[in-house]
């Protein structure tokens, strides 16, 4: 039932604040005391390897950044179809992420891995093939996702995943419980931030999309914790609009991607308040590129209004280890709007399936 929404993607984008609030209500009291992790019954780990594809891989990058920066745990993010080219050391926990739990590349990757690595599944389908194969399962609790392009399942994967790793870091003594409480308190403001981001984006995105819709290709830039969101923004444009969209770390721009920037080339910058993004923005503008900043206070499509007395982890003070989660809302809305203005079906893009069960 679409209710007042024009399509499932719009509905599922809108559902995100509610999904996050629901997830946090389930896991909040079990995060800072380590009990989420203890309840999984998995052995301790020294390294983490995330295995996933597409949007789930981007969620995995956010989770890997979190465990690395908060706990100093070495992490790998592995594209599922490339798993045979990586070597996982002893003590590695495999975190396999898949909305559907049926993506063949992910299931095959697990078959190829050495059995001694415990597997934790993060999925929206707890009775899926992935869940059956795993040693322990985390449920995303995103509810049914009908639109082919993942939206709310991404956000749910991020929130369930980062709270689970925070819990694991507390349980292993790598993170102080008081720090975990502060981090979870910051996440508790996410539903409100996402809703606010959606209101601003609804106002600004249609005109932005109209300005850039005839461009043959798009560049998405980010840095550090902002990078998975830039990659996700680019993937959404590719999947929905059938346009080239490349994501690049902002610092890599000068090593190649800048050559793609010409008069009017749209360059979407995920701005999480890192001043080093400014030099990339200046380089793009010097070549005539059309810069769209998304996220930070004062950007073209802000995802956060920073109160003058902010004492939390809001951008511009210190960046949360999971980066600018709320920035995904304007990125999803931009991709959807672009696709609609180009006459594409946002719920059923051609050649795309809800889950790819072939390899
Ligand atoms: C792709 C879909 O083929 O599979 C992507 O088009 C999706 O949108 C990816 O992110 C992974 O799917 P899943 O179900 O494993 O998360």
Automatic annotation (TrEMBL):
The keyword Repeat appears for this protein = yes
Q: What are the SIS domain coordinates in residue numbering?
A: 37-174, 208-349
Protein name listed in UniProt: Glutamine--fructose-6-phosphate aminotransferase [isomerizing]
Catalysed reaction(s) here are: D-fructose 6-phosphate + L-glutamine = D-glucosamine 6-phosphate + L-glutamate
**E.C. number, please?**
2.6.1.16
Keyword Repeat included in the entry's annotation: yes
Q: Which UniProt keywords apply?
A: Aminotransferase, Glutamine amidotransferase, Repeat, Transferase
Tell me a Gene Ontology molecular-function term this record carries.
glutamine-fructose-6-phosphate transaminase (isomerizing) activity
């Amino acid at each position: 039932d679409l209710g007042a929404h024009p399509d499932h993607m719009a509905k599922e984008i809108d559902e995100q604040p509610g999904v996050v609030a629901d997830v946090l209500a389930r896991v909040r009291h079990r995060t800072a005391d380590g009990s989420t992790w203890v309840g999984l019954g998995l052995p301790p780990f020294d390294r983490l390897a995330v295995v996933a594809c597409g949007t789930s891989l981007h969620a995995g990058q956010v989770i890997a950044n979190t465990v690395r920066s908060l706990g100093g745990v070495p992490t790998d993010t592995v594209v599922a179809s490339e798993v045979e080219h990586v070597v996982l050391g002893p003590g590695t926990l495999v975190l396999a992420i898949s909305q559907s739990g049926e993506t063949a590349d992910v299931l095959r990757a697990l078959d190829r891995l050495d059995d001694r690595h415990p597997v934790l599944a993060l999925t929206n389908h707890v009775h899926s093939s992935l869940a059956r194969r795993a040693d322990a399962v985390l449920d995303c609790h995103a509810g049914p996702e009908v639109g082919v392009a993942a939206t709310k399942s991404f956000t749910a994967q991020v929130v369930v995943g980062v709270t689970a790793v925070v819990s694991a870091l507390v349980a292993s003594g790598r993170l102080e419980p008081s720090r975990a409480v502060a981090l979870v308190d910051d996440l508790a403001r996410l539903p409100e931030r996402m809703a606010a981001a959606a209101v601003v984006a609804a106002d600004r995105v249609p005109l932005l999309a109209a300005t850039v819709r005839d461009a043959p290709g798009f560049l998405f830039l980010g840095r550090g914790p902002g990078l998975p969101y830039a990659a996700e923004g680019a993937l959404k444009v590719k999947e929905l609009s059938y346009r080239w969209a490349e994501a690049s770390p902002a610092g890599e721009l000068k090593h190649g991607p800048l050559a793609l920037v010409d008069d009017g080339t749209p360059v979407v910058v995920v701005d999480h308040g890192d001043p080093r993004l400014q030099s990339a923005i200046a380089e793009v503008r010097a070549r005539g590129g059309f810069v769209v900043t998304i996220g930070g206070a004062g950007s073209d499509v802000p995802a956060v209004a920073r109160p003058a007395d902010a004492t939390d982890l809001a951008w511009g003070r210190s960046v949360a280890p999971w980066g600018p989660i709320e920035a995904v809302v304007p990125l999803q809305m931009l991709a959807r709007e672009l696709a609609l203005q180009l006459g594409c079906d946002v719920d059923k893009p051609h050649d795309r399936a809800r889950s790819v069960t072939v390899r």
